[in-house]
Amino acid sequence: MKLTNEQRLLVVDDQSKIGSSATARKWGLTRQHVKDLARLYRNNALYSHGKNNKYTSDFKVKVVKAYINGEGSFRDLSIKFGIPCHGLIISWYHIYQSKGEEGLRNMKKTGRPRKNEVKENKNKVNLDSLLSSDKEEYTKEEIKALKEELLRLRCHEEFSKKFEALAQDYLIKKNSK
Fold first, then answer.
1. CA-CA distance, 149 to 143, in Å (whole number)?
2. How does DSSP classify residue 55?
3. What is the per-residue pLDDT across 78-95, written as a single tens digit (0 to 9) for each?
4. First and final C-alpha spacing in the chain
5. Inter-CA distances, 75 with 19, 36, 61, Å
6. What confidence score (pLDDT) does residue 70 get?
7. What is the reported pTM?
8. Rounded distance between C-alpha atoms, residue 120 and residue 114, angstroms
9. Which pLDDT tens digit goes with each residue over 150-161?
10. What is the pLDDT of residue 6?
11. How far is Cα 140 from Cα 123, in angstroms, rounded to an integer?
């Protein structure tokens, strides 16, 4: 159930008056959710949850190290640090376990890239200038680019031959009718 900020305050108010279990029944929430809202309120983190929060890599490392040092559960740390979902900390922890701090520091952005973001092709080889040059020594990237271009041209040639053969068969069948 999605609660507005006003409803969250009312839940916290009810929890302090009638207890967690009665508040959970009244609002149709779990008792744990009511307790979490009360903790968030006590830590002044009730309103800090927004969509599309961006967390720095240092912050992610700090939160994961807090979990490793036994400063609380995933749920407790999400409340302490104002993170909307403890599942986010779990995913950071798994990345930290498999790839270390560098894994958290080099996390790729997820989702569709923005229109104005331009891909950086540092190792992209300009084939036109490469083919027109009289170089005798080539780098690995240049050799790879030349091989890819050769393969592309061979595929194009094979496709053209097959297309031409199909076109001739079609004309022969059409003229024989």
1. 10
2. -
3. 877 777 778 889 999 999
4. 71
5. 20, 8, 17
6. 92
7. 0.45
8. 14
9. 999 999 999 999
10. 79
11. 10
